[in-house]
Amino acid sequence: MHWADIHAAINKSGYTLTKIAEMEGVDKSTVSLVIRGKRTSHNLAYAISAATGIPTERLWPGKYSQAPADHKAESFIAAEPLAQVANG
Q1: How far apart are the first and last CA of the chain?
Q2: How many domains does the chain have?
Q3: Angle, helix 17-24 to helix 42-52, in steps of 10 degrees
Q4: Of 6, 69, 71, 80, which has the most beta carbons under 10 Å away?
Q5: pTM for this one?
Q6: Are 37 and 43 in contact (CB under 8 A)?
Q7: What residue numbers bound the domain in which 50 lies?
Q8: Residue-level pLDDT, tens digit, the chain, 88 residues
Q9: What residues contact residue 8 under an 8 Å CB cut-off, 6+ apart?
Q10: Checking phi first, is residue 25 left (phi over 0); if not, alpha (psi -120 to 50) or beta?
Q11: Distances (CA, A) of 45 to 77, 83, 84
């Protein structure tokens, strides 16, 4: 998937790169590098997958073969996306 499509999917899901970076304890630029495929991070890839609901294999074909860890999915389910906070 093209990095711009991944970025759009994150925004569409109600998250931002900044929010994902904060949740994962990394810098926003690190999230951007992972999205663009210039850096590898299984933790961030699985967090992005959990936030968007798109499997890592579809986001980055052949790069991350495992499904997101359950704890990643649960942490993103528990966190309120910005769209819900703004609308609620």
Answers
A1: 31
A2: 1
A3: 130
A4: 6
A5: 0.73
A6: no
A7: 3-87
A8: 999 999 999 999 999 999 999 999 999 999 999 999 899 999 999 999 999 999 988 999 888 865 555 545 555 655 656 555 444 4
A9: none
A10: left
A11: 16, 22, 23
